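user: can you give me the structure for this one chain? tokens are fine.
assistant: on it. calling the predictor now.
[tool input]
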Amino acid sequence: NDTKPYLVEAYLNGKSGYNVWSNGLIEQWGMGMTVNGVADVSLLKSYSNTDYSILTTARGGNGQFSNWNVNTDEDGLKTVSAFRARAAYGNSAVTGYASFWWCTRGY
């Protein structure tokens, strides 16, 4: 079967949006902001399960930081409609604020 997936639904609202493909794949993206190293991100479209991937990229903040962690195990916040992101440098949480881009993919 050489049928390629095609876009069936698209949504864009400023810096966030999603695409839904004919094979059921959902891609979502947006910009988040941590407060004292933590941000709870609400997804625009719910997934069918929690087996979706999450990617974050540092954007800027009120200090120097080198690595980002997306926490899905420690306090369990990864649901079909939300996830928790943590900003850290070394082993310390970023204090104040830090902004980041995020994207998710799954079914």
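assistant: here you go. The beta strands are 7-13, 16-21, 26-35, 38-42, 53-61, 67-71, 82-89, 92-93, 97-106. The two ends are 20 Å apart (CA to CA).
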